Amino acid sequence: MQTTRNIYQQMSDEELGAARAELAARVEAVRARGLKLDMARGKPSPAQVDISRPMLSVLNADSDLFDGAVDCSNYGCFEGIPSARALASSLLGCPADQTLVLGSSSLLIEHDILGMFWRVGTCGHAPWSDYAAAHGGRPVKILCPVPGYDRHFGISADLGIENVPVPMTEEGPDMDEVERLAAADDAVKGIWCVPKYSNPTGVTYTEETVRRLAEMRTAAPDFRILWDNAYCVHDLYDEGDELANIFGLARAAGTEDRVVAFASTSKITFPGAGVAFVGASPAVVAEFSARMKAGLISADKLNQLRHARFLPDVDAVRAHMREHARHLRPRFEAVERKLSAGLAGTGCATWTRPRGGYFVSFDGPAGSAKRVGALCAELGVTLTPAGATFPGGCDPADTNIRIAPSYPDLPDLEAALDVLVLAVRAVAADLAYEERA
Amino acid sequence: MQTTRNIYQQMSDEELGAARAELAARVEAVRARGLKLDMARGKPSPAQVDISRPMLSVLNADSDLFDGAVDCSNYGCFEGIPSARALASSLLGCPADQTLVLGSSSLLIEHDILGMFWRVGTCGHAPWSDYAAAHGGRPVKILCPVPGYDRHFGISADLGIENVPVPMTEEGPDMDEVERLAAADDAVKGIWCVPKYSNPTGVTYTEETVRRLAEMRTAAPDFRILWDNAYCVHDLYDEGDELANIFGLARAAGTEDRVVAFASTSKITFPGAGVAFVGASPAVVAEFSARMKAGLISADKLNQLRHARFLPDVDAVRAHMREHARHLRPRFEAVERKLSAGLAGTGCATWTRPRGGYFVSFDGPAGSAKRVGALCAELGVTLTPAGATFPGGCDPADTNIRIAPSYPDLPDLEAALDVLVLAVRAVAADLAYEERA
Asked: Contact at 8 Å (CB) between B225 and B260?
């Protein structure tokens, strides 16, 4: 969001005409190159994925398939094998016996647990699906820090929950606003959070933010913080951001049932083929287990064993994540370098400088994002669809673009960023011209 | 269910007294042995599981991780990799593009798809959850062939669906009854089926039964056949039972949307760590995919790849299943041998002689099953809880016991069967005595 006028807005009509002509010529030159580049999703590059290949040799036909007393090759142990729960505990920040290790997708666990709140309720409270009928048709609401993660918003939208945007700040969600909304309305049943290296801003919630989330008064007694710690160990630098332990703060505040935390190894080992975790209060873990057991005898314990042996302790995780950072850091640095070189001082854009995670959040002039996305697509560069970082795909100021630099190799990424810079300048110049018409 | 009087009922009071004294002495002798044996669940034995160990060496750190054009080591390909869908197609009996390969548990897919019918409906029809409110509180019902699979009944019960028992015959569910119930009441929304080597009877539905299911008139336009083909290739003998292809019959009858089929490799490779499949009409697959995509980017494609390479075609599956049969057949034959030796001609029991699957269904005298289960437990032999094969755990005649012979080794199994025979005789004699009082 720009508050001062950008360079194109400040130009004379003649200067602006010349600038637009030059930008148009450059656009045509790029179009002629017929690029095909993708900065759309937070997907590790093939070389980055390959660093986890040794895990595929951890188990073979002759391996010991026991984890302590648990035979990982047969049914049983619904809650997950002990060593995988220990890994879950270290990633989620709650005791191992408050964790479950289920399947390969934390998103699916989020889907299932929200589905449970919806259909049967939580901790003795009425099902969320009953709320509207009992309250004159007012829908259940969930707070969505924006810009945020589109798939989170998709899960709540799929249930018919109203996604209520709240602005992100450099300290996490705007807590004045979150506290106001949560205290004022018992239809507000929760908040989606990616607390560390947030998607897409890269912001890590401050301790103050985490504390306020744990301690705030909520009108709904069954308010739930959906704490998707997707990037809990995903530091780009040896010195990573520190995230306060929300379980400790919630326990102290007597709000432990409020916190449901998620993580997975999708961006630690293999995307989509990792293991996924949930951690919550003993009461919420018990109710979720009871529901899930109706459909699940036990999750894939062999994959749990593979992971636990490949990542036996926090040091092994840290060493492995340093390998990831080796691939990701140059890409994030390329984003900063290219955006600075192309847009610093223009007044056309702001962007974040994350120290971890998978995304950079970029804001252009008001009304620019969809046009920038469309122009980039025309020029062969796929971006996350403009608006995707807002519920319903609706970015009211139409400024935000999520940059996902992890997948392309460095030359492709740099080429794509050059196109993005050019597109932002071209659209900004056009917008400045249209303002005068 | 016994129609004629058993040997204890036919005895004089004196003979019965002597028989009971002798049985009581034998019970005490067994009790003194302090056995600890388990015939409760359909769990392969450790030696049987070991035949799939070579699959754990199929992928290693140096493997090609592509399946055709699909990179199995990264996100994408929600529907499952091509070679795993081909395997799904051969097990489910529908075209590969009507299959999805999702996670490791078919039970969980059943849970999810029934949850979808419940919450949002299917093929444009109202959600099942709306039915009761629109019909004076009458609940949605699902037909449950009994004796049947307790976990199926648990899934529907968890949603608040009323499980309606219909008797199994040697040809599958009693189709006169099924047709009558399905045609009479639009609250009847489906039927649970294990069509081949049914759990626990081992019955394979006849072609006539399958045809009637596909063709029958249903009052509910969104009636669904939940076709859990869990034992589709699980033959004990080279000549297996033949199951008619329900998709072909339904397509011919114009009822293709009615059939939703499930299978998994849990009893082909590793229990709980296999891959699970669903197959349905293009419309139902599309609606289920759309819902599941809200929570799942893609399932574990590395495990799909491992399976597809280990079981590349129908011949490989067949050869592998012959290895399973080598472990299972002697156990099923021990059941037949021990039950025949101990109970044939007594009029106290009937049981099934399956040619595949994991269970034998046993019926003792009316009112005996819970007492037999309790006595076996006292003597150190765990059975599936009496009644578990009926919705709500309620076997009205209290006769049915599910025998799961797969897990114990042969000497243990024989010892457990000796205990079961003794317990049935002891309870039958006690019941005969109590009748006279």
From this structure: yes
